[in-house]
Design goal:
Blueprint: E1 4-8, E2 15-19, E3 25-28, E4 35-36, H1 38-53, H2 59-66, H3 74-84, H4 91-103, E5 104-105, E6 108-109, E7 116-117, H5 121-128, E8 132-136, H6 141-148, E9 157-161, H7 173-179, E10 187-191, H8 194-203, E11 207-210, H9 218-227, E12 233-234
Parallel strand pairs: 3-8, 3-10, 8-9, 10-11, 11-12
Antiparallel strand pairs: 1-2, 4-7, 5-6
Helix pairs in contact: 1-3, 1-4, 3-4
């Protein structure tokens, strides 16, 4: 894994950092990295658990489940969560219930209408001028297309791997498909989930975690990301600019 070399900032009172070896390939997760999903996927998970169990659950509990391997897939997480509360639910049952809250039913808009992009097209386009950009997401192709089909910056991504295109995270197949026969150390993967870090580790791709101080279970999640070799913990994906060489 590339080493990290701190360098002095241009402005007094601030320290920037840069990578000793600059990546040639940037790979982004979507949820929590390019899109704020607190009101969409996370809210749908809480709504689904309450619907299936009758119990109110919290975002703190959700993060506890998200910190476990294999639960980047929200349907798998909800199935396990609901079952642990004494209401056994299969993966298919959890998915069917979840999708009603996510997509909406009977003309009522679902939580997907709350989706907010965290990145501007201009920032993506600036990166695309210097790096090859790719996406590896746990979304289905339908979910991805709903948000990104008409987004101007989508054209900047060379390869887009969804859960319909590769084995589910934490399996590294999506990263390996993007890389082909290229050296994994020439890439950098940005994700916000433990499964993203595990996939990067197993693909031998350098990884940075998106996690802001003040988030639920920050200390535990940050420690786990560091254990898995995260090169940095970034509050927002655009903070990657502090680590990339000036253009």
């Amino acid at each position: 894994m590339p080493k990290i070399l701190p360098v002095p900032a241009k402005r007094a009172g601030r320290r920037n950092k840069t990578l000793l070896r600059q990546p040639q390939i940037l790979i982004f997760d979507v949820d929590g990295v390019l899109v704020d999903v607190r009101g969409t996927y996370w809210r749908s998970a809480l709504d689904t658990v309450r619907h299936l169990t009758g119990k109110r659950v919290t975002f703190a509990e959700l993060h506890e489940w998200k910190s476990k391997p294999g639960f980047n897939d929200d349907w798998n997480m909800v199935s396990a969560w609901v079952t642990s509360l004494g209401h056994p639910a299969t993966y298919a049952e959890a998915r069917a219930a979840f999708e009603k809250f996510y997509w909406g039913t009977d003309g009522k808009p679902g939580n997907v209408s709350n989706e907010k992009l965290l990145m501007t097209p201009k920032q993506i386009e600036r990166w695309a001028q210097r790096y090859e950009l790719n996406l590896f997401t746990g979304r289905t192709r339908r979910e991805f297309s709903f948000t990104f089909e008409d987004w101007p910056a989508t054209k900047c991504f060379r390869t887009i791997i969804t859960m319909d295109d590769a084995k589910r995270k934490p399996h590294p197949e999506g990263l390996l498909k993007i890389l082909g026969k290229r050296d994994p150390s020439t890439a950098l993967y940005l994700g916000d989930n433990i499964d993203d870090a595990l996939a990067a580790r197993d693909a031998e791709v350098p990884f940075m975690a998106i996690i802001a101080q003040g988030e639920d279970r920050y200390r535990q999640r940050a420690a786990r990301f560091r254990e898995l070799g995260a090169m940095a913990l970034l509050p927002r994906a655009r903070d990657l600019n502090d680590w990339l060489a000036p253009s």
